[in-house]
Specification:
22 helices; alpha+beta; 36 strands; globular; seven-stranded antiparallel beta sheet; 804 residues; binds zinc ion; nine-stranded mixed beta sheet; 33% helix
Length: 804
């Protein structure tokens, strides 16, 4: 077993916090998970951490320091577009450090020491304290320090600084990782490397910039770099780090959220924002500035109450959307991103220590069981990026070594800390809180008490706590979270077999204050029931839950899905989406009536069957976190029989219109469909493609070209017959979008797309002159972006016959 230094107690001796904690977390080494779904996933993740090779993770770091790499780098986001080399190492350090604490794994501990030694060598070779893997990073930061700071992707998604992907984001991930290594293992070298890195950035970059320039820098995604500097202040007690931490708080987010502007987050890239607020809370804990706390609290409330799906995830297509647009966002192929939820849990942990509440832990439980656990595939332990919300969606998981997406990073980070919030205690050790119902064993050294929580939850509707007290009659209050899904008066507590409480209400802790002794047991009954939750703003979509567990329909692999479709190197979402009209829906007078169509399957916990559906007579429902490798429904569409009939008629009209267009179409490129784009000889430069809508009869993907880039296709024409070039765009794509369309190298039009304010597609028709077509069978159509402009996004492209 490892000898772990109690680094956390060392920290508090060095810096006095401005704000007193109201709840204290146990160090991860004091909590061991016991048999259950959470422990199974932690173990699978531990094995994956051991498969990753430190020398490959370190490859770019050595190369940038002028040292010979010892192994090639990983591919995917570590090496290819969007290039974020080194980001995975930061997540690896955090995840492995917490895993070492949580499991005592000695091999991982050895690897962390090895990586820290290697990073120290890299840092020494760089000379200045700098040690990033970013290609050309020294030049990038020298330019920044000289005041050259151009942010790409504004206003909603700052993702580049002077054309480089997020160098301050990877800096932050590395700093967070080094800090976790020091906390978990007491590695003194990790602390020194971290402090030198902070000094380099503080003195060489931040001190060279005025506050306005720092704020411009913060317009690019930077994780929680303010939190990292707050952590270095805690390590050193040197106030310069706290001053830097405060300068690194992004005012663009701070002011509106402190003022509780509920619309402000609309359209912003979600995962870029979430970590900033964890940083605000970290700085507030140290300097007592209430505005920072207010912003973090208001942000959490806004995201959780107004911007989250039933599984706890938030956003669509990576962005926050207006809170009355859930019905539109439901059809986005890119549903909530896993990263967001991992970072919302971090924010919840930070808030809980200062403002503990049942509401925080209700959200934590919902998100942990219904999103976080659900994005790890149970066979290889890989990670989903997006979780589609439209009925019939399916998840795609990463490749083990060649994807390295952001959500692979957060997927590595989180399982090591599954034990973090199960138990907490008051700072004066007068009370122990049981927040989560997960089988685990707690060692509480200050009280010389061990507590074992036995449960098969969520397959079991209750837990049993067993106590071992080294001293007889150890006094403390035991407080059990009364969760939102247990009605008032239904949570029953038995001490040593005798009912002592059944009067608590949800939203509070059920408390027993007594002298505890070895052999005491507490049984907690947590009765679950079926409930439904409508999509905000649209009762035609309803989700089903049993207790806190989101149930999902098992919808199989229709539409040509095979097992291998569920793991992808590059594609972060499924390309074989089906229209929702091909998925079963409930025909009911009132949405809540669906509850009468759902019955438990005897002998199979958490398993149900639904009837009263279109298409399928009966559908099996299982917890979403256990529903993998097939299509699923989380939100069910519910129509009255009359609504269903009128929809049928509308579909018939749309189909008729579509047939007329098809009859006129000479050639069509299905954008984003690899076979179609290849058949049309796609050529491109600085071109991107991605998912759009998966509505019935609407285009599903887009392609664009950015900042002077272009893309082209060859399309068939009918020789000597008048034709039109029809291109399709999305009404809310605005910003700088001026571009030329060329046919065989000759400009036929210049377009400047504007945000029309309408959430719908529109076509632009360009008649092609006869002399352009004479004697040809095909033409090359090129979309050429102007500098600093985007061409597209193009959703559909056709040659159609001109009506007579
Ligand atoms: Zn992500």
């Amino acid at each position: 077993m490892l000898c772990l230094i109690a680094a956390q107690s060392v920290l508090s001796a060095q810096t006095a916090s401005a704000v007193t904690n109201a709840a204290t977390l146990f160090p991860l080494r004091e909590v061991r998970l016991l048999d259950g779904p959470v422990q199974v996933q932690q173990e699978m993740n531990r094995r994956y951490l051991l498969k990753l090779e430190p020398d490959r993770l370190l490859s770019w770091f050595r190369r940038e320091a002028g040292l010979e790499p010892k192994a090639p780098p990983y591919r995917g986001w570590e090496s290819e577009s969007p290039q974020l080399p080194g980001h995975i190492l930061g997540f690896y350090l955090s995840g492995a450090a917490m895993m070492v604490q949580a499991t005592g794994d000695e091999e991982l501990h050895y690897r962390l020491d090895y990586i820290v030694d290697q990073l120290a060598e890299v840092q020494a070779a760089n000379g200045s304290g700098y040690m990033l893997a970013v290609p050309g990073g020294k030049k990038i930061f020298a330019d920044i320090a000289a005041g050259q700071i151009q942010i790409g992707g504004l206003p909603w998604t700052g993702y580049q600084i002077n054309g480089n992907f997020e160098p301050t984001y990877t800096l932050n991930k590395l700093m967070l990782g080094l800090y976790q290594v020091y906390l978990a293992t007491g590695n003194e070298k990790a602390k020194q490397v971290l402090i030198r890195l902070a000094d380099w950035f503080g003195h060489n970059v931040l001190d060279a910039l005025n506050d306005a320039q720092v704020q411009t820098l913060l317009d690019c995604e930077h994780g929680s770099i303010n939190e990292s500097f707050a952590e270095v202040f805690q390590l050193t007690g040197d106030r310069k780090y706290l001053v830097w931490a405060r300068r690194l708080c992004h005012e663009r987010m701070l002011q509106p959220l402190a003022a509780n502007d509920g619309k402000f987050l609309d359209h912003y890239h979600a995962n870029t924002q979430i970590p900033k607020f964890t940083g605000f809370e970290a700085v507030y804990a140290l300097n007592g500035e209430r505005e920072l706390d207010a912003a973090a609290v208001n942000f959490w409330n806004d995201v959780v109450s107004n911007r989250s799906w039933v599984i706890g995830g938030n956003g669509a297509n990576e962005h926050f959307f207006p809170t009355n647009d859930f019905d539109q966002a439901l059809h986005a192929a890119a549903g909530p991103e896993s990263c967001n939820s991992v970072n919302m849990l971090r924010l919840t942990e930070a808030l809980y220590q200062l403002h503990p509440s049942v509401a925080l832990m209700d959200y934590y439980e919902r998100t942990l069981f219904n999103h976080i656990l659900a994005v790890h595939d149970p066979e290889r332990g890989m990670f989903a990026y997006y979780t589609g919300m439209q009925p019939g969606s399916y998840r795609v998981y990463s490749d083990e070594f060649d994807s390295m997406w952001c959500c692979v990073g957060t997927g590595l980070e989180v399982p090591g800390k599954y034990g973090q919030m199960i138990f907490t205690h008051t700072p004066d050790n007068s009370a122990l809180d049981v927040n989560l119902f997960i089988a685990a064993e707690l060692n509480w050294p200050e009280k010389q008490v061990k507590v074992t929580q036995e449960t098969q939850f969520p397959a079991q509707e209750g837990v049993k706590l067993k106590f071992i007290c080294e001293k007889p009659n150890t006094k403390f209050a035991l407080r059990i979270r009364h969760p939102w899904w247990v009605p008032d008066g239904k949570l029953q507590l038995k001490v040593n077999g005798r009912v002592v409480r059944d009067d608590s209400r949800n939203g509070e802790y059920a408390e027993i204050n007594k002298n505890w002794r070895t052999g005491d047991t507490v049984e907690v009954q947590l009765p679950m029931h079926l409930s439904c939750q409508a999509l905000p703003g649209d009762e035609h979509y309803v989700a089903l839950l049993y207790g806190p567990i989101v149930l999902s329909g098992e919808l199989g692999r229709s539409g040509g899905l095979s097992k291998e479709d569920f793991w992808q190197i590059h594609d972060t979402l499924g390309r074989k989406n089906l229209p929702e009209s091909r998925m079963p829906m409930f025909l009911v007078e009132e949405p809540a009536d669906i509850l009468s169509h759902v019955q438990a399957v005897p002998g199979e916990p958490l398993t149900f069957e639904a009837d009263g559906l279109t298409i399928s007579n009966r559908v099996r429902l299982i917890p979403f976190f256990q529903n993998h490798f097939q299509r699923y429904a989380i939100y069910w569409r519910c129509l009255t029989p009359e609504e269903f009939q009128s929809e049928r008629s509308r579909q018939a009209l749309t189909a008729q219109h579509k047939r007329e267009i098809e009859a006129q179409t000479v050639d069509q490129v299905r954008i984003g469909d690899e076979a179609s784009e290849t058949a049309h000889h796609l050529k491109s430069s600085r071109s991107f493609d991605g998912p759009g809508s998966s509505d019935d009869d609407a285009p599903t993907h887009w392609r664009d070209a950015r900042d002077g880039g272009w893309f082209s296709y060859d399309l068939k024409i009918v020789s000597d017959f008048p034709v039109i070039l029809r291109s399709t765009y999305w009404g809310q794509d605005g910003g700088e979008r001026t571009f030329d369309i060329l046919v065989d190298g000759q400009k036929v039009t210049t377009l400047s797309l504007k945000d029309t304010g309408h959430r719908e597609f529109y076509d632009i028709d360009v008649p092609l002159a006869a002399e352009l077509l004479a004697g040809k069978n095909s033409v090359t159509v090129t979309f050429q972006a102007r500098p600093n402009n985007t061409a597209g996004g193009l959703f559909d492209l056709r040659i159609v016959k001109k009506s007579p």
